[in-house]
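Hi team,

Filling in the usual template for the complex we talked about on Friday. All components are listed, including any nucleic acid strands or ligand strings, so the model treats them as one assembly.

SUBMITTER: L.P.
PURPOSE: interface mapping
COMPONENTS: two
RESIDUES: 718
SEQUENCES:
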Amino acid sequence: MKAWEKNIRRVVPYVPGDQPAGDRLIKLNTNENPYPPAPGVRRALGEMDYDRLRKYPDPAASVLTECLAGYYGVDKNQVFVGVGSDDVLAMAFLTFFNSEKPILFPDISYSFYKVWAELFRIPYEMTALDEAFLICPEDYYRENGGVIFPNPNAPTGLLLGLEQVEDILKHNQDVIVIVDEAYIDFGGRSALALLNRYENLLVVQTFSKARSMAGMRIGFAIGASGLIKAMNDVKYSYNSYTMNMPSLVLGEEAVRDETYFRETVGKIVNTREQAKKRLRLLGFSFPDSMSNFIFAKHEKVPAVRIFQALKDQQIYVRHFAGPRVEDYLRITIGTDEEMEVLYDFLEGYLRGEISGKCF
Amino acid sequence: MKAWEKNIRRVVPYVPGDQPAGDRLIKLNTNENPYPPAPGVRRALGEMDYDRLRKYPDPAASVLTECLAGYYGVDKNQVFVGVGSDDVLAMAFLTFFNSEKPILFPDISYSFYKVWAELFRIPYEMTALDEAFLICPEDYYRENGGVIFPNPNAPTGLLLGLEQVEDILKHNQDVIVIVDEAYIDFGGRSALALLNRYENLLVVQTFSKARSMAGMRIGFAIGASGLIKAMNDVKYSYNSYTMNMPSLVLGEEAVRDETYFRETVGKIVNTREQAKKRLRLLGFSFPDSMSNFIFAKHEKVPAVRIFQALKDQQIYVRHFAGPRVEDYLRITIGTDEEMEVLYDFLEGYLRGEISGKCF
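RESULT (copied from the run log):
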């Protein structure tokens, strides 16, 4: 071992989901939106002044923070933007979770919470979801260094009502509580409604799901201006210019078109409700998702077998290893056409598996 | 003070340089390139498939790492890309500087080194540049937890010869040595030539200067594959998808056009050499810059006065506070036309100041 090797930070690398490429595949594995971004995004892309690329972008990302502030009815100094919600969340961990006490988050949840805690050496404890995969607010009544949970939760898709979110906030007024709302637009009520009453609340959202912009990497946090200032101070100590020029220009366009946004989200919600019926008929059960994916378990055929059979057909869904979750597949809601291909294949495949084999 | 406030990380926020906007101003304050990106960038922008924005970008940024690997004649697993060289450098600090011993860097240098060290709680010591603003390799002979310096240095513009860079490497084989080459294309020889002999060497470069892409936020590091793997492990623990789709597509185009690159860099170098003559005639002295800026001090008129007078004319240059540097202005090399406006104004202004006032 070289002398310098002992000072290299060793982490267990997180492995992102497959990003298979190809025209004919059906990609239902990373909760992307099946519809393109708002038409204004295309227009802005075509009209973009490429000469401006030679200049640094606005470090305050004002165009985007002001646009989001207007949309959500908050002040612009209550908005922080970053390179996807991962950047925003990581920055929030670094800024707010500096206690000796453990931060708390659900055991079945977004896998990055644990990864960031380990990277930044933040003590943490995971609280178990109940039998029905629900978050129990009482689990967050104990002393801690901070709280974070997704709502709706991933990969379960289950929504916590606003009363329960507030219950967690009420019991945690001495720490920062982060509600990670990547999927909130698909059917939940945002904790933004509680901002006026809890200045220790940080709400994080993303452009990657409902706004069809995973490829642009835009996430944001909204909270009391004091929290946002603290995050900006840390951000300016890390990288002043995180948001590139196209992100700022196209991000603004994505927020502007409310009609298109409602329309595509509405289509996904309809397809999801249809999917619940169709998957149930095929022998799947699942928590009642309020997100753009369904976390489904088949009554007879093991998840890992279905996962592989689908992959052989170039239909990609997500399968996670680990107790409890390994029985499930996380299926992103695609277009109606993509979902029909999925149902059609599953129908034939499951019939064959069930009649021909025993488990 | 609220209970949660005590766990907020307090940092002294870094203040980025002004980004004044307006059509008529002359912006010579942030070392941007006065020429637009390569024509292929414009073409690629126009042809970009906006539907792809709904999908996550390739987390490995393969298109860009492979393109850079080909250009610099290294293996693709020797290349790491990030959101500007700030992201790359911060990630390198987090990955490699985990010793109890202080890291070393020059006292007059890129101001972010100190900021990152403080953010990540890395002990550091600054070594003083000599009277002529030169880095003295002997200052880096002592025990340390890592070394970083820019070459050419900023804001001085002075280049360290490759023999001296190697001398620092020879005396520091137990730690990671980072050579930050943001300005190397304007006249220096890259430490990439030493990669085969020093597996503890990390060379960091950027698309923001010679490649006219500050607005895209692309930086990269090249080193032994083991170092790059360690950085990627940390990156995947922070944010899997840092490079958005436009960065990958446009970044590749910027690297491809070698002719345009040589041509614009050549123009800037010519303008810089011309600027040295003109500024000298106006009573300025400066270290012999090998970068795209000149760090100039006037023989009679204080820098801060000239700075303000230029600003009043909407000509923006950079002035830093602090001992030794406060006597200087950092003037980015613009187009010949922009520089003529600068000389013309300075000629009249300095004549007036010198004849009419005493200091």
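MY TAKE: The longest strand of chain A covers residues 201-206. Chain A touches chain B through 86 residues (CB under 8 Å).

Thanks, L.
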